[in-house]
Amino acid sequence: MSSVELRLQTLAQNFRLEQSVKSPPPPTGSATSASTTKRAAILVCLFKGDDGELRVILTKRSSSLSSNPGDVALPGGKRDEADADDVDTALREAKEEIGLDPSLVNVVTVLDHIVNKRGMTVVPVIGLLSDIKAFSPAPNVAEVEAIFDAPLEMFLKDEKRREEEREWMGDKYLLHYFDFEADDGKEYVIWALTAGVLIKAASTVYERSPAFLEQSPKFWVSGGASTTMP
């Protein structure tokens, strides 16, 4: 077993332990209660490629969507009142968007949440797909134009990467763009919140910092570390 596989196994064991001792959620309407209308979850679904490297499943959003049309994204969406927690949201949305059966995904960990400029709290959930052959992609054409995958480690490398300095509430930060060509020759640009989440996910899994200056926005909300992104 490789060091990365051991790392994922440890993260998964720790996550299950945390879930077993997790205190009950705060009552609805309290200051710390999660708002279903202002909360979303995304799934960083990893699997082992033919060459043994970890890869992550990504989508290209439909060009007909009202928000971020045509952008590369991770499967996910807004939390429903019926969802038990953020993990439930991420898995449900992945099934609805790309046809991924939740039973195929072993949740490894949940990253610190992010707050975008519209005030939406986004929770990244890392999951491991043990058998990629068991997954038959079925994109929801109303939301997803394409499904593809990319190596997770690329988000730690200073290759085919661009950056742009932005400012928000007086704080300067870097917006990262990763250019990627899929096996079918199609080219994608992975940027903004999606790129930021994947940098964090790769850093968590590989236990090392990226080979470039990350410089995330310096914005925090009560209840955990958060980053504002476009």
Automatic annotation (TrEMBL):
Cofactor(s) listed in the protein's UniProt record: Mn(2+); Mg(2+)
SUPFAM superfamilies to which the protein is assigned, alphabetical: Nudix (SSF55811)
GO term, biological process aspect, one: coenzyme A catabolic process
Keyword Phosphoprotein: no
Ranges where the Nudix hydrolase domain occurs: 37-193
Superkingdom of the source species: Eukaryota
Designated name of the protein: Nudix hydrolase domain-containing protein
Segments for region (Disordered): 16-35, 63-84
Pfam families reported in the protein's UniProt record: NUDIX
PANTHER family associated with the record: NUDIX HYDROLASE, NUDIX HYDROLASE 11
GO MF annotation terms: coenzyme A diphosphatase activity; guanosine-3',5'-bis(diphosphate) 3'-diphosphatase activity; metal ion binding
PROSITE patterns on file: NUDIX
Assigned keywords, A-Z: Hydrolase, Magnesium, Manganese, Metal-binding
Organism: Malus baccata
Cellular component GO terms, alphabetical: cytoplasm
